Amino acid sequence: METVEKKSAVETYIEQRKSSDSEPICAYVYDLELLKEHATSIKESLPSFCRFYYAVKANPARELLQTLEPIVDGFEVASIGEIGKVSNVSGKPMLFGGPGKKDSEIENAMDHNVEYFNVESFHELNRMNYIAKQNEVTLPVLLRVNLSENVSESNIRMSGVPSQFGVDERDVQDLIKKAMELQNIDVRGFHYHAMSNNLDAHAHVRFVEMCIEKSLAWRDEYELNNPIIDIGGGVGINYWNPDQPFDWETLATGLSQCETAYKDENLTLFLEIGRYVTAECGSYVAEVLDVKTNHSEHYAVIRGGSHHLRFPAAWKISQPFSIYPIDEWRYPFERPEITDTKVTVAGELCTPNDVLVRKEYVNRLRAGDVLVFEYAGAYGWTISHHDFLSHPHPEHVYI
Ligand SMILES: Cc1ncc(COP(=O)(O)O)c(C=O)c1O
User: Residue limits of the Orn/DAP/Arg decarboxylase 2 N-terminal domain (predicted)?
Assistant: First the structure.
């Protein structure tokens, strides 16, 4: 891994923090300018039949939502908590998904700016109709499909495999018929979120084409209005090799070709992207407390760990990182150091699972240096088990 070279938001933070506080550094640092530029370039690359929604679960921090608000067309939410967070910063429309919606959430969502409700099962459809009837409204819904085919080689798949999400493609026709019978339900389209962290842009385009074809076939069979086709998120970050990122241009070009190919169909395509939007703008920054060798393997122990950034432990991968060298050393005794070797980076928890980096090469690493874990802006802090061992939480800094 490379030593950090250019002045960045993270570097600015580390310099300020080091000059003002002797406690070991531990923080999430967000570069909001980078987020703004990245989200704007995504939006500008999309053809006009696309709507760009941000999947709030990737990172619901208020500062990020505020930065994205002027850029995105809306937000994908999966709980009343997320609906509240979006409502605090935006009047833009929301899509409400998630496999376990409570009656109270559905009712509450109707009072907010929720434009479409995803239907995840027959029972949920019945409940939505029941609640809508009691409130004398009609709910616009997208039917969530678990496709029969596997659509990518991504880490997590919600298609072509059994899952708690959506309705088996083989049952979708029954679901449409059922929905059409219900007086307080309006079928507006289909929802296909099918994968997580897909790195193959060509596979993503094929998936979009498949979603369009299936939606049009059901539209024709049941004389539905032109459907909204929600292709979900799942655009990946290459944590293993950040120099070879997901080829966004291939996806954007593929979407434009779809717009041209289906121009007479008057389709609207929704993207609800999380990871790819916010991962890069966030870094988790943690000071090395100790460097040691144990059974011939080298370990660095940091102030922090998987209770703050659970993702690499959950996926059993190395979080990409760089080293910010700190030359000051405040003790009168020897500074632990390793050079030209592989290191495992562990956290401060009392479990061997608390690992953020597995046997990666470093030129030099010393106690007191600072590790900058990159691509930590999505599925970082909020998916982690913050209070295990009761260590203080990291700072959250928005630059
Ligand atoms: C329904 C739905 N839409 C969108 C997303 C966002 O996916 P990603 O962060 O991979 O883009 C998720 C993630 O779990 C999801 O469940």
Answer: 35-279
Ligand 1 mean position to 353 CA, how many Å? 26
The total of other beta-carbon atoms located within 10 Å of residue 206's CB is: 15
Question: Which residue among 50, 211, 281, 350 is the active-site one?
Answer: 350
Decide whether any atom of ligand 1 lies within 6 Å of the 79 Cβ: no
Q: Are residues 91 and 154 in the same domain?
A: yes
Considering the domain boundaries, does residue 2 fall inside one? no
Residue-number span of the structural domain to which 325 is assigned: 9-30+281-398
Question: Do 180 and 316 reside in the same domain of the chain?
Answer: no
Residue nearest to atom 5 of ligand 1 (CA): 233
Contact 76 CB / ligand 1 (< 6 Å): yes
281 counts as catalytic: no
pLDDT tens by residue, 234-266: 999 999 999 999 999 999 999 999 999 999 998
| Cβ-based neighbours of 283, under 8 Å, separated by 6 or more | 10, 28, 29, 30, 31, 372, 373, 374, 376, 377
115-166 confidence digits (pLDDT tens): 999 999 999 999 999 999 999 999 999 999 998 887 766 666 666 777 888 8
